[in-house]
Amino acid sequence: MECCHNPACSIEIPEGARKIVLAGNPNVGKSVFFNAFTGMYVDVSNFPGTTVDISIGKYQNDVVMDTPGVYGVSSFNDEERVARDVILFADVILNVVDAVHLERDLFLTQQIIDMGIPMVVALNMMDEVKRNGLKIDVDKLSKELGVEVIPTTAIKKEGIEEIKAALQRARVGNPIPEVKALMDTVIDKVDTASEALLVVEEDENVLERHGLENVYGKREEIYKLRRNRIDQIISAVVSETNRGASFKTKLGRWMLKPLTGIPILFVALYLTYQAIGVFVAQTVVGVTEEIIMGQYYYDFIMGIMTKLVEETSFIGQLLIGEFGVLTMAPIYLLGLLLPLVVGFYFILSIMEDSGYLPRIAALVDRLLTGLGLNGRAIIPMILGFGCVTMATITTRLLGSKRERFIATMLLGLAIPCSAQLGVIVGLIAPLGGKMVLLYCLTIFTVFVVTGTVLNKIMPGESTDLLIDLPPLRVPVPSNVFRKTYIKSKMFIAEAGPLFVLGAVVVTVLQYTGALEVIMNAFSPITEGFLKLPKETTQTFIMGIIRRDFGAAGLNDLVSQGMLNALQTVIALVVITLFVPCIAAIMVIFKERSWQESALIWIGSFIISFVTGGILAQIIL
Amino acid sequence: MTLDLAVRGQKIEVVKIPDANIRAQAIRLGIYEGAQLICSEKLPAGPIILQNRMQEIAIGRNLAKKISIKAV
């Protein structure tokens, strides 16, 4: 097969192995099949040229590849582009469909059939079919599609062996004749039938790879034909036996309606806070950061390194100094951040797999549209309370550049990360309810005003919410763990080097005396405008290095009696709004253009001081 | 009329979706010109939920204002 057009070709495949690709809509249980096929020996990596991860494993002599869940083969976002390239690369497809969602899932099925790739359909979640009062004529469905359809309930291991056997008999299904005719007009311009389909479906990347102009534009016509074909198949094979709304359906509805949805959301957030804010941030981090990394690791590395370098020399400072590459960077990254990131991804995976997340997105959509975002932006916002660096990476899932900018700005500015939040809570709680209210109100106001203003002044339009609300399901633990593991690993791989780089930058600034110069330059603003003692400047600068360092520095000043209650609130407001930590800044520069990043950086800088200043002028 | 004016529980037919990209994404979820669906829920000033059997889709209010529908 001609291969140079597809980045998937850089994936190494053993000689003679078939490439079995799992494809399906989001949350249909693909991973359960993947695990059943491959067992433990799985390689997870970024797909070439993207940040989307794909899993590759071995099954007998063949290679099994998982793809991101998508509603169709096209290029509306990164996940779809990756799924498309892996599907184009496939020898055999195992298409996993959700039996209670055939209207949605068969669109992809028919599209792959039209591509002419041999396939088997796993009709999954069969246990839910009867419960929801549906009946599916599997034989008829198989006949209509022209490929084998195997009923399965993968989480109960039902049907897996049948699927394994059926894969040997995978065959090309019945394409839609009109679509086939359209494909025939371009087949001589490309290498495979699948590519021909994507050319007539106007896929920009596939067109570009073959140096073709988009003059075959028939996407709408084809989608319409496909939709009609599927609706026709479904009315022939699915019958409803009764129509009782189950408890899950009702719960799903309650999660959406504000009257019940908001209390449910608060309960969910409270549980999340207990799990992460209390258990992970205090108990777990107390062990990982202070004991495992802070003592055992620190003593170990110092024991080795002090024999090799002088601690006070430049190299010594760089490696094992206060902000050393071998001391601060790994202690911070592995001791503090890793447990928090794992905790957050764990909760997020549960929310995702249970089907709750899209409902939260719908519930908060109204609030976020005023800020130029839509409900989907709730995901980076929740993650921001864990780690702004991690959340900034997630802004990729937003629909337009405009939304990504607004979300990144709001994250960098007004969302305190968990490391910082812990110290802030410790400082502000003893000051009483009024001060807590003043702090929260100020931050919230800045959040809303910044978002609203950006929405007003930024050119272009944000995308609207259009989201599938999957049925509520109890998440499969192994899936949740797997997702958490993959996402956490990706985070460390991506952010780790930036933390190291950040440590280097700070050590250089400190060693050369530049840090001192910066601090002195800011003192007049701190004293005159913010009405805070000069020493506070140092804590602000420290806040850039590690956000919690800054807050912790304030803790010292307060215990020395240098700040009164109102001054503490002002200092906390400034440090929360102040530029995000150095790793977050680097991620911002990596994700956004340098102009946008500079704007975010300088913008949050100015906003933090102006807000603090205004507050100081009013209340002091 | 437009989708944002649909009433909860009403059965509607989609008449026109203006944006080509939205059309392509919506049709995969079962929303297309000529599709008959039920407006199963309407959040105050927020998204409209459309239902087709077990399939439910949330559509932001602003987008709903651009989609023409008729009652069936």
From TrEMBL, chain A:
The residues the record assigns to binding GTP are 24-31, 49-53, 66-69, 124-127
Could you tell me one molecular function GO term of this UniProt entry?
ferrous iron transmembrane transporter activity
Keywords (alphabetical) are: Cell membrane, GTP-binding, Ion transport, Iron, Iron transport, Magnesium, Membrane, Metal-binding, Nucleotide-binding, Transmembrane, Transmembrane helix, Transport
Q: Which InterPro entries match?
A: Fe2_transport_prot-B, Fe2_transport_prot_B_C, FeoB_GTPase, G_FEOB_dom, Gate_dom, GTP-bd, P-loop_NTPase
Where does it reside? Cell membrane
| Coiled-coil regions listed in the entry | none
- Domain FeoB-type G: from-to ranges: 17-173
Q: How does it sit in the membrane?
A: Multi-pass membrane protein
What residue intervals traverse the membrane? 254-273, 319-348, 377-398, 405-429, 435-454, 491-511, 565-589, 598-619
Residues binding Mg(2+), per UniProt: N35, A36, T38, G39
One Gene Ontology cellular component annotation? plasma membrane
Q: Does 4Fe-4S count among this protein's keywords?
A: no
Pfam families of this UniProt entry?
FeoB_C, FeoB_N, Gate
| NCBIfam families tied to this protein | feoB
Q: Which family does it belong to?
A: Belongs to the TRAFAC class TrmE-Era-EngA-EngB-Septin-like GTPase superfamily. FeoB GTPase (TC 9.A.8) family.
Biological role: Probable transporter of a GTP-driven Fe(2+) uptake system.
Name this protein carries in UniProt: Ferrous iron transport protein B
Automatic annotation (TrEMBL), chain B:
Keyword Iron attributed:
yes
Task: Write down the SUPFAM superfamilies for this protein, in alphabetical order.
Answer: C-terminal domain of transcriptional repressors
Q: Which domain of life is it from?
A: Bacteria
What Gene Ontology terms describe what this protein does at the molecular function level? transition metal ion binding
Please state every residue range assigned to the domain named Ferrous iron transporter FeoA-like: 1-71
| Stretches that traverse the bilayer | none
Q: Which UniProt keywords apply?
A: Iron
Keyword Iron attached: yes
Q: Please give the name of this protein.
A: Ferrous iron transporter FeoA-like domain-containing protein
In its UniProt entry, the species of origin is given as Thermotalea metallivorans
